[in-house]
Amino acid sequence: MKKFSKKWISSKKPRKQRKYRANAPLHIRRKMLSAMLDKKLKKEFNKNALPVRKGDEVFIMRGEFKGKTGKILRVDTKKLKVYIDGIKRKKANGQEVEVPIDPSNLKIINLNMEDRMRRKFIERKKVL
Question: Considering the entire predicted model, what is its pTM?
Answer without folding.
Answer: 0.86
